[in-house]
Design a protein that fits this description.
The structure is a homohexamer of 272-residue chains. By secondary structure, chain A is α/β, with parallel strands linked by helices. Chain A contains nine helices and 15 strands. Helices cover 40% and strands 15% of the residues of chain A. Chain A starts with 12 loop residues before the first helix and ends in a 12-residue tail after the last helix. Chain A binds chain F through residues 3-5, 26, 30-39, 41-42, 44, and chain F through 3-5, 26, 30-39, 41-42, 44.
Chain lengths: 272, 272, 272, 272, 272, 272
């Protein structure tokens, strides 16, 4: 596995920044330098960092790190779509979470980020007709990161999943670009029959903590779903839905709720 | 530990099917053949597969796989009630989740299925006056599968827990046969006093994602609890309850909601 | 690391009781005696028990138990504030959960208790300007215990987090003394800007299962938040709030909801 | 696996003594009490102690402790010949090594003792037509204990292998009862053809450090082989052989060299 | 890492035979099928089998299996010299050890074979100017297989190291093709100065158990060194040397001692 | 455990040099930077490096790295005698082995060096009346490094044990300063009675590969023992002994054989 630093670093600002942050962390917290070198600095590309990090976190006595790392490297190395989406996901995490002060933190720690990259591998493997290993990755990620994302779901780039515990994204769900969601969000199906049964989420949507979006419904671009809501019907673009079951309470105030991360809902807009 | 294939395979269609699915997976995904043989094909019975698989997943540096595997084998081998319920749980998972395409997937991967079998061991151990190890299993399963099921709860057969993250089932809770529930469902108590303080769930009930059923209340057979609901009072058989706090909004449309897995709630029935 | 039993045991009744409970467990469940000795009886203080136990649970191939144990011992040994709060947390867990029959169970098993002690270490480390390792502990605890508590949050003593899966406590959140909360509770922020953006929870508050408290709002002393509620505005002391979004439905019935653990909400008080 | 203490302890003085020594060690060295309970005190019989201890020492990522422990338990539990020989081996180690102050030390630590018990399992498995696993155990023991004993060799009881590093005992070798040998002793074959090609060692023989006994030759009862010797021809009973190649230098001075452990050779007997 | 079975199997009889032997083992010893698939059958080439097997055996908490496996795969995959020598080493082990009944046994178990392949990787890495990792492999192999082979030594193909414990081959040693040696053989240097200071061993030489060949001396083709000998001077081709210090005692009886594995030395040839 | 870099580095040239060598290795072999930081650079003193490195190498499922690291740190930190001897041992290894090109290699890799430091800990623990853990360390080191050194032996400083496999040093053995010995050297006792029964080795002695020194005999200062010799009687200072059994063959040629590492024996001096 060729894993040497390339002279493309000057055109890979995300990777260059992560390396710089890693060096600073190793310098300021000496007890972490072994960890930081092993996870970041001894690798030659961001793709290998993610592959090895996921492998170490997801390995167990039944399926070891070597095998997993090879699978992830297969999926990530030389995959242009992944190269773009992983960088967009890192930036999204950093931009939208004020508690995230470094790209490095997203890469090393954020369960939502890591579960999303595991999904990206599983999705790629599914398209290579390797359903068996794709399902393995899905379910192992669900144990380790507590976010259960089916490999057949379609998820865009620049997606941010904060905290991530309890997130479920079903088999026929679709998620657009630049979407943000919080922990305990469910994009669930309904019924025991197969077929297209999960939600379709537009671009720029914000789905707040614990919201359940159920069934083959459509959430329009830049919509906002309030925390704890249960959404069973379509939500138009640029509107806010809230409640159990959710009702439309008005227009969203800004252009892209997913970037504003404003979880408040304007009660004066309540049409109840 | 006798672990040889018996000539009862022809009368154990569940186990025979799982073996066949495992062989197919090993053949089609060569990189998984070590995993599939180690977890399934080298064992002589479904009971040993579950015992060893739980042990490997739940082992850590404080309590090793050998010890755990012996405990689970004690609980499962030669236990007719377990033999029946584990097969019913597998069938329930397969029948009710359209994303589940194989018995094997339920056995190897589903956190809800695995947490439920760990509970079945813990419950058996509790009845053997081995409370210490029963509590260990409960809490370790809560870490590993994120479903916290008290060993003293009573749970029937043919139970399906989908996704499972965040499920809590309390000490005096009872769950009938053929119940389905989703992730983040709580069957919780109320008050700091002991005694009978958790819900009693009838047969064939469907409890949708994130619903909280709290207190010593009774959910009648074939009732349906809507996603995100907070249920604080009895729900009659064959009715649907929804909301925070939940209200009865009408009759369920089919015979057994747990088998239909229809999470939609008919808004026209809303009595609000 | 000095880890010998001191003759202060007679003035440390919590530690003395835990040792006694551990001896009883080792005696009655012989298969657990190795576990009980390794985790409790071979250590010389409650602080070392917690340090070593957290280290073993949180260690992985990237960051080993030796390093982690040293970090936790640094944070806990000789730290009077920790000595007081960890004992108060143990008592709170035991007093308020009728399913908890021993101090030992809280220490060894309760994810909420363990995540809280990991937070206490991370918070101490942050104040030592060791932000790097503080973030590591936060995020590793989120993987292992599924409770994501930011090290900069301020949390009092005698806090009980039951079941714990899915709990999120944000960077500028404050939690008073003697608070109880259940699994899936979120003390979340709003907006992508930094600054003081998370809730302030008073003393003696009870936050029931799955409640989301969002934004820089104030929950007064001894308030009660109903299960599944989404709280977006201040809640006065000694009142009960419930619903999505939550509304005040009346006064709390007893002095300290966190100690009563009564999750029922009196519907007759509903002002809707 | 039934592993409970039996009331036969009063007729199993070796096991009773080991338990007593283990209790004393746990009491005097508190930091070892977890180890001592996990390896000895939580087991119900000497046989289970040996099975579990070998399994933990010999397990690796390719062949886990659960599987190995089952294999060893199969071989040891209820095997009367093993019950006798393991106790005789313990006594031999204790009686003949003045540095061995406890039966417990032999059981927990001595590489020669442990490699010998692994051989006893492999030999039993070979007779069960389980050649594959027998070879696995032989070779894994050679890695872990550095003593390579072919499962088809025949070895009596009361055998003591001191230090053990580098010991090799070939496929058709035979070793009588009450034999002692030191590290780096080889009972080797000659030639690339199969068949009976290894030494036959009588009862009570002492083979000193680094001696090589090569070919299908016979070492008579109570003979003594000097350190570093290379023995290529028969050695009569009750004689001492020494040198490269070894020559008979006289009679042994006592009844059983293996029990005297006197490695000196009387130069005055040298027939050179 | 491309690891798929190629259609070159028909021209790779060694690999084809190993796969067949592995399938038979998995079939006859069901408890080993997980092991056999994970180590052999799920890999696509003999080279990957060796790389992964060495990695798993040599990994520890400081240097994990993923990293090691990549290093070994770098060294082995597409390396024609290795492809030839590893197959010759397997055949040599099988042909010359009557206790070795399968190619598979050599590959999976023989410490000498595995240490030799680890050396081949280290030697290759040294020539890539990767001295650091070459030394790591040398020393880790010395711990795990107890054979300490310096990466700068030159070793031919078809080499068989039986039992292997205690073997040492120094920095400037050279070993020809088709050499056999046994455990505890040393090809050592002399003096604390660097430079060319180790033995040069010709083709077809047999070095019997525990022989020490010391200094920059030459052992001619097809010579035989008796067990336990200490060789300090040149040994001509086709002669036998024995003793401490070794003396020439005559001609070897057959063409290639390394293939005959006849460790006896004809005393009648003794020129003493 | 305080483990911060001190400003004493300028007076600790050994530690300063090791850090510098480690930095160079991390820079030139990027794939090893995680290893190098975790083992060396993230520690604050040479003593902690040795403690943690031994702990990681010697840990297993029965006795974990945290416990072991604490034990070693207890023995090493603030122990002036250890501080001196460990630095002398490093220098001895580097000075006398031409294949050793860095202090770092001795510290990280040399089995003889590591076994010797483990002995130094065990010896210290024995003097603290912690015989139980001292024996554990002895025997675990014998498994891991294949050098079995009794904790009650007395060993000076500046000792070099090359290759180390098979070394045995008995309970009442004494080894002076600046001694060198090679693999498979035995300083053994004789007889089954206790008491003073092992050799006393003077300063500056060289004991070559595989030599056995047996019984309570005295090897005088600066003596040399030839490879493969079996020494059963006293050897005067500054003389060379060789053979089985060993005879004095003359004076040593230089001042300190242990520093010359000249394993040749001048045959012209042979008195035979």
């Amino acid at each position: 596995m060729s894993d040497t630093a390339t002279n493309l670093d000057h055109v890979d600002p995300v990777w260059a920044r992560i390396q710089e942050e890693a060096r600073q962390l190793a310098d300021t917290e000496s007890g972490m330098s072994g960890f930081v070198h092993a996870t970041v600095l001894q690798h030659g590309s961001l793709e290998m960092v993610i592959a090895a990090h996921l492998a170490e976190k997801m390995a167990n006595s039944e399926f070891g790190a070597s095998n997993l790392c090879d699978v992830f490297a297969d999926a990530f190395i030389g995959n242009d779509a992944f190269a773009e989406s992983v960088r967009a996901d890192i930036a999204a995490t950093f931009d939208r979470d004020p508690a995230c002060r470094a790209y490095l933190d997203a890469v090393l720690y954020y369960k939502g980020f890591l579960a999303l990259q595991a999904y990206r591998a599983a999705n790629w493997l599914l398209h290579q007709n390797r359903r068996g290993i794709a399902l393995y990755i899905q379910n192992r990620a669900s144990e380790v990161f507590q976010a259960d994302i089916h490999p057949a779901a379609k998820i865009g780039r620049g997606v941010f999943i904060d905290h991530a515990t309890g997130v479920v994204i079903g088999e026929t769900a679709e998620v657009g670009n630049d979407v943000s969601m919080l922990h305990s969000v469910t994009l669930g199906g309904s019924g025991k029959e197969g077929g297209d049964r999960h939600p379709k989420i537009g671009n720029g949507v914000l789905i707040s903590v614990g919201a359940k979006v159920l069934g083959n419904i459509r959430i329009g671009d830049c919509a906002k779903i309030g925390g704890g809501s249960v959404v069973l019907t379509d939500v138009p673009a640029y509107t806010t839905a809230v409640g159990v079951p959710a009702k439309i309470i008005g227009k969203v105030s800004g252009p892209e709720p997913s970037r504003q991360m404003d979880h408040s809902v304007d009660q004066s807009d309540d049409d109840a």
